[in-house]
What we know:
The protein is an alpha/beta fold.
Amino acid sequence: MVDGDSTRSVRAGRPEAEQxxxxxxxxxxxxxxxxxxxxxGPYTYGRDTNPTWTLLEDAISELEGGGLTTVFSxxxxxxxxAMMSLVSSGDTVVMPDDCYQTSRALRDRLESYGVTVRxxxxxxxxxxxxxxxxxxxxxxxxxxxGLDVCDIARIAAAAHEAGALVAVDNTLATPLGQRALDLGAxxxxxxxxxxxxxxxxxxxxxxxxxDEALAQAVRTWRKTVGAIPGPMEAWLAHRSLATLALRxxxxxxxxxxxxxxxxxxxxxxxxxxPGLADDPAHVLxxxxxxxxxxxxxxxxxSQDAADRFLGxxxxxxxxxxxxxxxxTAERRARWGGDAVPPGFIRFSCGIxxxxxxxxxxxxxLDTAGR
Length: 370
Ligand SMILES: *Cc1c(COP(=O)(O)O)cnc(C)c1O
């Protein structure tokens, strides 16, 4: 019998019960560990390994369905580690042109190192046409902030046939929403700043792979560039994992209820939520995802209307990022860099009571429409 997601997340990475020991050992603060004589692991120097990371890495590996996890100081540290440690001058990387904008910003850096970068949209599995001759195919599904979805298993099969590795930025889904490795990816990468830790108080990232050599390359990269999480952040993240399934269940229920309530609203266009039965991504999302995430996106007619909407919300904080227990929303175009209209809202559902959240959004839309 396989345990359910809540059972797994509450137990993940916690050591066997031991008399008088805590359920989850506190953070180990150490820049170095006692090390007499010859150099031997597991714990030598704090940039290389730390027992608090080990417990968190084991936990995330369990949730990913098995593998070797390396945790990083942020999502971007994980993204850049996966890209930079696996490609060299002369290689080709295929990226989604609608992925998280800072991941896309790595393009210039890669090209300056002699790597060719080819871009294609997430929607319609357009990256399939670019896999020939690639070393690494980077997927982000659902994409942030457009919420398009691509077929991981299908693209992974084509990429593998072409001799390429496949990495999936799984930030939006989390391992309890989508098992990227089971679907055929070589690497599952994520910003754990978002839904995985879910309290808006930690920056963290991870890379998980079932390939020993790839894991070693990623680990060596972390040691070399020093993009390591603090023990306190790693411990907080592990503590947060216990409620991951609970949080996701409420957040995704809120997101579906919100998207359903907003369908056909006269002020809105471009409503997207992969869990909505008539969303263009739904059929594919339902095939590969078990939870559709906490983000709903839609557009108001103008920047002004969007700002009025955000200003009228009572329960929803105007803030960037997503995945927190508190609902947040932002006018995404204020940052520049994403191909979205001026009134585009990325809305992240928290764990508030569904009726309260929807009532608040509807009253704010009334205000915005006046
Ligand atoms: C936020 C985000 C990142 C970057 O993560 P940080 O923790 O902010 O460094 C990468 N990918 C996606 C899809 C994200 O949403």
